[in-house]
């Protein structure tokens, strides 16, 4: 996707700066400063983005994060197994199972036997589930683009504080210098 290139270029450039910073640390400094640790910062950023997006599907559609992930996975795959959902979303199978049960109770997802292996259940969105998916996905993609590209909303600061660059920087600025 062409629109991802500026984001990826920024991440690569930022990673290069972080790599230089890591090289500059002396070997006599064995302590780990967690807010400056790249995996920690990326994890926090991912959680923030996920929570930011969850505002849409929680408020408008009554979905929690695990349920949204199931709907998004099943909808984009046009059907799949719970095992596939767990593997592709990295959610524990118990969370996947609960989300599937909640969605089935709401009539958004259905189970069907796999003709090749009757022990395996294929999951598909119902008509109501497909309608929800088709309404929700454009909203989520728009919010993702706004956040990742730093599009300003009315009243937002122009210093990238609301976009990925600003948030990633924020997660590493608690330390004055390295």
CATH-wise, what's the superfamily?
Winged helix-like DNA-binding domain superfamily/Winged helix DNA-binding domain
Q: Helix tally?
A: 7
How many domains? The number is 1
Estimate the mean pLDDT confidence.
79
Radius of gyration from the alpha-carbon trace, in angstroms: 20 Å
Q: Helical percent range?
A: 55-70%
Low-confidence stretches: 173-178
What string gives the helices and strands in order? HHHHHEEHH
Based on CA inertia axes, which overall geometry fits? elongated
CATH top level class name: Mainly Alpha
Oligomer: single chain
What structural class is derived from the secondary structure elements? mainly alpha
Count all strands and give the number: 2
Q: Tell me the distance between the termini.
A: 36 Å
What does this protein structure show overall?
It is a single chain. With 178 residues, this protein is mainly α. The chain has one domain (2-170): Orthogonal Bundle (Arc Repressor Mutant, subunit A). Helix content is 61%, strand content 6%. The protein contains seven helices and two strands, in the order αααααββαα. Strands 1-2 form a two-stranded antiparallel ribbon. β1 and β2 (121-125) form a beta hairpin. α2 packs across α6, α3 (65-77) packs across α5 and α4 (82-89) packs across α5. The two termini are 36 Å apart.
């Amino acid at each position: 996707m062409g629109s991802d290139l500026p984001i990826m270029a920024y991440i690569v450039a930022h990673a290069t700066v972080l790599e230089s910073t890591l090289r500059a640390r002396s070997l006599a400094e064995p302590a780990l400063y967690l807010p400056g640790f790249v995996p920690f910062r990326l994890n926090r950023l991912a959680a923030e983005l996920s929570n930011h997006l969850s505002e849409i599907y929680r408020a408008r559609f009554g979905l929690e994060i695990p349920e949204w992930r199931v709907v998004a996975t099943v909808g984009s795959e046009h059907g799949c197994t719970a095992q596939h959902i767990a593997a592709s979303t990295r959610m524990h199978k118990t969370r996947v199972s609960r989300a599937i049960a909640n969605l089935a109770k709401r009539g958004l997802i259905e189970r069907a036997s796999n003709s090749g292996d009757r022990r395996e259940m294929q999951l598909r969105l119902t008509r109501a589930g497909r309608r929800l998916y088709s309404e929700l996905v454009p909203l989520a993609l728009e919010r993702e683009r706004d956040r990742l590209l730093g599009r300003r909303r009315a009243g937002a600061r122009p210093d990238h504080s609301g976009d990925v660059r600003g948030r990633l920087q924020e997660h590493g600025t608690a330390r004055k210098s390295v």
